[in-house]
Design goal:
This protein is α/β, with parallel strands linked by helices. It has a domain of 184 residues: Rossmann fold (3-Layer(aba) Sandwich). The chain is built from 8 helices and 9 strands. The chain has a 9-stranded mixed sheet, sandwiched between helices. α1 packs across α2.
């Protein structure tokens, strides 16, 4: 039996798909929310694995470039379990690891994609310990170098709770989007992530809650509006103002909770 073909979000892109509509709303919300703060560098964060973080990151970058016509860069900062090169159909190396260790210059590791406005820095492939792959000063310099070159920059990272690199990276970005999987992410993990994020909580722009379908009214079925050709979305996002109510709240006052839709019935990649 031949191996299953890797999922390529650029090739699968459908502007009429429900998940594209939801990510467009998310980008519009971020644009309004961050308009006066000159935020353009966004980092994805999650408590653990398999919460859809990398898929959300890739979709944000694709839609930013293709629909909003922004010059966009996406960076795979997860050098432990990288995913973005699969989702975008790109080689894994050279990439971020090579840039951080000065093995390749920035212009070499920055790859074009089939979308003219979208560029990517994949993870690269560490040759030694994964814990030694990240160099904070070099990452800070890389972010400073690419910032003036793009309208939007999205950075995927490893999960926050088990490893330290995401919290180091967070010091050099403008904003965080926290991703969680409804019905799967343990409350203990969410609370621990909340503790870790507390020093940089003002940077949290919103929370993406995957797999949030329970309790939604019938008109969230796109077939209600006559879009019978579209698959029924298995994960649906809504955006609402939030007010902190307990110690598990992740977004700051005035932020947004975001419940994000996946592309199909399969579990999103980490």
């Amino acid at each position: 039996m031949p191996p299953q073909r890797a999922r390529n979000l650029i090739e699968e892109f459908n502007i009429n798909a429900p998940h594209v509509t939801e990510v467009r709303r998310l980008l519009q919300t971020l644009a309004r929310q961050d308009a006066d703060q000159d935020r353009k560098v966004y980092m994805m964060a999650s408590a653990g694995r398999s919460e859809g973080k990398s898929t959300v990151c890739a979709l944000l970058a694709i839609i930013s470039a293709k629909i909003f016509h922004r010059r966009t860069l996406v960076i795979d900062g997860d050098m432990r379990r990288p995913t973005l090169h699969y989702l975008l159909g790109l080689p894994q190396r050279p990439g971020l690891y090579d840039a951080l260790h000065r093995l390749q210059p920035l212009d070499v590791v920055t790859r074009p994609t089939p979308l003219s406005n979208l560029f990517a820095i994949t993870s690269g492939r560490p040759t030694g310990s994964a814990g030694d792959a990240y160099i904070d000063s070099e990452f800070a310099a890389l972010v400073d170098a690419v910032r003036p070159m793009y309208d939007s920059i999205f950075i995927d990272t490893a999960p926050v709770v088990p490893v330290v690199e995401p919290m180091l990276m967070a010091e050099h970005v403008d904003s965080l989007l926290v991703v969680a999987m409804a019905g799967q992410t343990p409350l203990m993990m969410v609370r621990r992530m909340r503790q870790l994020l507390n020093p940089i909580l003002p940077k949290v722009s919103g929370v993406v809650l995957n797999n949030a379908v329970e309790g939604l009214p019938y008109y969230y079925d796109y077939r209600y509006y006559g879009y019978a050709e579209q698959p029924l979305p298995k994960r649906i996002r809504t955006t609402t103002p939030t007010t902190p109510t307990d110690h598990t709240q992740l977004s700051p006052s005035g932020g947004h909770h975001v419940r994000e839709g996946g592309m199909d019935g399969r579990r999103d990649q980490d």
